């Protein structure tokens, strides 16, 4: 099979087209022929090297996977799936036996596995995954639309659900123009809530339905929060990391801050602990999203006729250029990479 991978950590130029033997599924596994993947910040983080999680070289990144079930391992029970089915692959699966996995919370599993991170992912033509990670693809969404859902849209949906976002709520989205930020804006508006988006691309976020847009100036943000809300936003969602103090300042008493991801310069953030206990603030940390959240967001989007925001469709061979663009903050929304090699 062909794949875009790397055999050492480094800049985008370490990515190159490679050829490998086709993967063979073990019992309980299938091989998926990948039609498309999408660009995610985690792809670049893994390429550069993630502290504490070693990568065995060569490595094939790609957290998002949509494709056809090509083959199954010996004695594998496919359940409701069949060879040839169009499927998505969940962006996380667990050991299957711990108390979290038994409760359908595999994103909490201490031994969680993520495609493109711990194991090879969607930058390859073929990928080997457990049957338990498969999700049936709806006919109402195109291949390109499906390719952006497993990570950005499922984890955004999880953030909104754990914060109990509902109609009329004010939601602060920090990092509005990226894949997560645009997903959060689209889904929040579909839930009937209102959005204050912190972004460097105000016109884009306005076009996606954001009620208020603002740059990263703290004083201007607080002015707009005070003008538009009754004592602060109900929910603040921060996927950047070093903007957490802005989220805590903007939240109303009793509000909820959801934090996930580190896209800023450092994972270390200094905050005043009094902002939690004196204002009854809830802080929830999340990462990835279980298969249940992926199924939920698919059903929600199909029922509401919601389409994800895709700014560009490219090929997986263009990954080095796209990684460079992403790391220079030149990517907005989601970028799809098709497996078109000729």
TrEMBL record:
The keyword Cell inner membrane does not apply. GO terms for molecular function: alcohol dehydrogenase (NAD+) activity; metal ion binding. SUPFAM superfamilies: GroES-like (SSF50129), NAD(P)-binding Rossmann-fold domains (SSF51735). The keyword Zinc applies. Residues 10-337 form the Enoyl reductase (ER) domain. Keywords: Metal-binding, Oxidoreductase, Zinc. Its cofactor is Zn(2+). It comes from the Archaea. GO terms for cellular component: cytoplasm. InterPro entries: ADH-like_C (IPR013149), ADH-like_N (IPR013154), ER (IPR020843), GroES-like_sf (IPR011032), NAD(P)-bd_dom_sf (IPR036291). Belongs to the zinc-containing alcohol dehydrogenase family. PANTHER family: ALCOHOL DEHYDROGENASE 1-RELATED, VACUOLAR PROTEIN SORTING-ASSOCIATED PROTEIN 11. This is Alcohol dehydrogenase GroES domain protein.
């Amino acid at each position: 099979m062909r794949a875009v991978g790397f055999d050492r950590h480094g800049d985008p130029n370490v990515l190159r087209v490679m050829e490998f033997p086709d993967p063979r599924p073990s019992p309980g596994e299938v091989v998926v022929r990948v039609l498309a993947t999408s660009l995610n910040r985690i792809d670049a983080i893994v390429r550069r090297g993630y502290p504490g999680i070693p990568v065995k070289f060569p490595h094939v990144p790609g957290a998002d996977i949509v494709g056809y079930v090509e083959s199954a391992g010996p004695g594998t029970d496919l359940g409701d799936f069949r060879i040839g089915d169009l499927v998505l692959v969940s962006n996380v699966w667990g050991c299957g036996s711990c108390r979290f996995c038994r409760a359908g919370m595999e994103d909490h599993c201490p031994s969680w596995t993520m495609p493109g991170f711990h194991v090879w992912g969607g930058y390859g033509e073929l990928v080997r995954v457990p049957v338990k990670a498969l999700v049936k693809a709806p006919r109402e969404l195109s291949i390109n639309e499906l390719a952006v859902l497993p990570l950005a849209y499922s984890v955004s949906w999880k953030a909104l659900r754990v914060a109990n976002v509902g109609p009329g709520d004010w939601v602060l989205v920090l990092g509005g123009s990226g894949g997560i930020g645009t997903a959060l804006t689209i889904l929040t508006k579909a839930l009937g809530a209102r959005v204050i988006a912190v972004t460097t691309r105000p016109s884009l976020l306005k076009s996606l339905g954001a009620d208020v847009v603002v740059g990263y100036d703290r004083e201007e943000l607080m002015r707009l929060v005070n003008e538009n809300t009754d004592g602060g936003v109900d929910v603040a969602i921060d996927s950047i990391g070093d903007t957490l103090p802005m989220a805590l300042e903007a939240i109303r008493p009793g509000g909820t801050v959801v934090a996930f991801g580190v896209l800023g310069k450092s994972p270390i953030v200094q905050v005043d602990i009094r902002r939690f206990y004196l204002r009854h603030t809830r802080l929830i940390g999340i990462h990835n999203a279980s298969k249940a959240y992926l199924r939920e967001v698919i059903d929600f989007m199909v029922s509401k006729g919601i389409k994800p925001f895709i700014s560009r469709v490219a090929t997986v061979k263009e990954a080095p250029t796209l990684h460079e663009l992403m790391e220079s903050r030149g990517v907005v929304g989601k970028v799809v990479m098709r497996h078109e090699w000729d």
